[in-house]
Amino acid sequence: MSSKAIEFAQHQQERFVEELKSLLRIPSISTLPEHVGDVRRAAGFIAEELRRIGMENVRLIETASASHPNGHPLVYADWLRAGADRPTVLCYGHYDVQPAEPLDEWISPPFEPTERNGNLYARGAVDDKGQMWMHVKALESLFAANEGRLPVNVRVIVEGEEEVGGEGIAAFVREHGDQLRADVALVSDTEMFAPDLPTLCVGLRGMIYTELEVRGGRTDLHSGMYGGTAPNPFVALAQIVTKLKDEEGRILIPGFYDCVARPTEEELKAWKALPFDEEHYRKTEVGSSELTGEPGYSVLERTWARPTLDVHGMPGGFIGAGAKTVIPARALAKISMRLVPDQTPTEAFAQYKAYVESIAPRGVEIEVRLIHSGDPIVVSTDNPYVRAATTAMREVFGVETVFVRGGGSIPIVGDFVRELGMPTLMMGFGLPDDNLHAPNEKFHLANFHRGIESILRFFSLVAA
Ligand code: BES
Ligand code: MN
Ligand code: MN
Fold first, then answer.
1. What is the pLDDT averaged over residues 40-62?
2. Do domains 2-204+377-463 and 206-260+307-374 have the same CATH topology?
3. Burial per residue of 89-111, b for 16 or more beta-carbon CB atoms within 10 angstroms, e otherwise
4. Does ligand 1 lie within 6 Å of residue 159's CB atom?
């Protein structure tokens, strides 16, 4: 039943990529206020295409949350005419992207999509516009091959705030979850473990993203006149930061590890069997002289099943060229923690805040703010949808699927599972060297096309 759709997709490969390029030209950077218009334009582009291929009830849903009072819109569409005996699949993706800086490290500009060596380079190529587009193109192929009908009922939800915490979609799920009701959610926003190795991601880390502000004097002060008496917020901040983790990478926040669940023996055994070359990973992916982190845990455990804490930047003070002798009045650090089952963002933030306040040096005031958060999640693999997905990918890739976790976060996945009780499939086609969030992000085009075929086979298999 899917062979006509596969043929259609194969004949349209070039057009599918050209359309994706048009979407990638829109710099829909959700965190930058100057791009609100672009973000909305990207939403409109997707809505228009969903309408064109035959989806119904296509609309933009406005969002608002505490952190984003004028949120970026959700794109919604459905086609529910397959019949009550057929399952309903919810397709999820996000059309917003991370900022593209540092720009001078891009070989071709981030918003001028360019093909090189079978890859499509652009910000958002794989995270997540390209992967979301696979869903749209799989649906288009099925419509085209089946006289405007789909083998299953489908809802589509595409968000524009994933990269800034996804509060808008979370509020929508809380208030209008019934509008997204489905038997299974399909998420394509993760990676394959290795080239040619079909992969289902069965777990994600959660996170809390925070700002830590340290205030010293009433204003910036001359460091000659006041150096020696006035507290320096940057030094204080550095002192706090060095007390967050020990040299081995263990987080020093009291109680932080209390709720950390150990992966099952089965999982640990399966991870050991994965084709992982630590030295290659160190050299080509990380590019540092050594890997750091908690002793006694493998790299995969450290990135998938252990919490971590990172400092992203410390804005403030004098950072221009040359020299300026000043004691800044304030210093800021952007600090996030990745969480694993069974930690909760609320508890982790409370522990962090209490600890930071308890170690604040004399003479400064500190403020700890939560920017956004998301729950960690491990999904079940024991359902017919997982079997359909692995069958579909075996048909396309010719090998068995591996099950992995991801170290990254997709905040809404936890809500799909917990709030809506939906089994959720994370069937992603990125590669470890696709440079997500980094310069020269790319999507390996063979995986874009194999992804489309896997997804349309999946739809056909779950219909049966
Ligand atoms: N697609 C990623 C998450 C991801 C990447 C999961 C690789 C598994 C493997 C997503 O777009 C992302 O980057 N999420 C942010 C979420 C945050 C801003 C709340 C992240 O993980 O930093
Ligand atoms: Mn993503
Ligand atoms: Mn991302």
1. 98
2. no
3. bbbbbbbbbbbbeeeeebeeebb
4. no
